[in-house]
Write a structure and sequence with these properties.
- This protein is low in regular secondary structure.
- The protein has no helices and two strands.
- The protein has a two-stranded antiparallel ribbon.
- Strand 1 and strand 2 form a beta hairpin.
Length: about 50
Amino acid sequence: MSVETNEKQRFSFSEDGQKIWANQGHPLPIDLNLEPMEPTDRLYHMTASRFL
């Protein structure tokens, strides 16, 4: 698979051609029906515990 031949166009080159970017987004709007809320005192990123 290459950037140019990927039929789903999942990737593109940066303007300078030095990096490959993932084209992200959804073809349809998504509403998860979630209510906004205040964040807790601690927020966690899903990462390996050795990096905490």
